Amino acid sequence: MYMMPTELLRTEIPAIDTAYTLLLEKEDYSDVYPGMVRYVLSVLEGTVLRAVFRTNTYEYAPLSTLHAERIARARAEAWQESLRNDPQQFLVTHPLPRPRVFRYSSTDVVVLQGSPRGEGNSSILAEWTVKCAQDKGKTAQVLFPHDLDIHHCIGCYQCYNTGYCIYDDDMGMVISSLHDATLVVLCTPVYTMTVPAGLKLLMDRCQAYHAKRLLSQDTSTRRGLLFSVAGRTGLDNFSCLEATVHAYMRNLGIRPSGEVLVDGMDRVQDVRTIPSLREKVRDTIDKSLEP
Length: 291
What we know:
Elements: E1 6-15, E2 18-28, E3 37-45, E4 48-56, H1 68-85, H2 87-93, E5 109-113, H3 121-135, E6 140-143, H4 159-162, H5 171-180, E7 183-189, H6 197-205, H7 207-215, E8 222-229, H8 239-251, E9 254-262, H9 265-268, H10 277-288
Parallel strand pairs: 5-6, 5-7, 7-8, 8-9
Antiparallel strand pairs: 1-2, 2-3, 3-4
Helix pairs in contact: 1-2, 3-10
């Protein structure tokens, strides 16, 4: 997925009763994004990591005067001087990032209910999905993006430094749930030919999950389903939504494995009145939960 790290700088810094190694490496992720390079500056005491700084080329906009490698080398010079002058103070002022711990319910099936209408047709599809999963002996949970604290993605690409987003909000729980699921189901209406804003927020912020998979070389896959309703008549109303959802799934190692698309809902109003629709949903879920 990426080339082995290339060593750019290694400096040994002696101290009382110990010694530190200042190491600057670069990692090439051009196979994922053209020209993406991550620079990792580390301070090691023997083999123990004591401090780390990461930056990547995609953090900086085209018109910015900042450059990732120059910033990493400048940081290396500053760290080298600080370590030589007062290593203990350096370690106090440059603590390692604390790992994030997310509280969530690990389930087999995760349903993303994209509609802000809690009693609408997408919620009915989500309820059917949960019942079908439970009938197969699986656990399931429904996530409502519009009820979650989710900051919009700002395209800073800093998640490719650490595997985590800079915003510490409910997306940590969402990503952890997606990681453990064997099946991901999106239940959503069509809003202006695509998904509603709350669901799009969640989808965009899953870029941090893509980064986490990349950095950990996670190649695991799971299955994904799309259940969607549109007010107008015609399956062409789903074309943009399908492309968006399928791209989202593939970006996260989720294999699109089926869909149920229901048009003409302005006329029908209630999906429960459509003959055989619930059975179609059940069949689609059953096939996706097969080994």
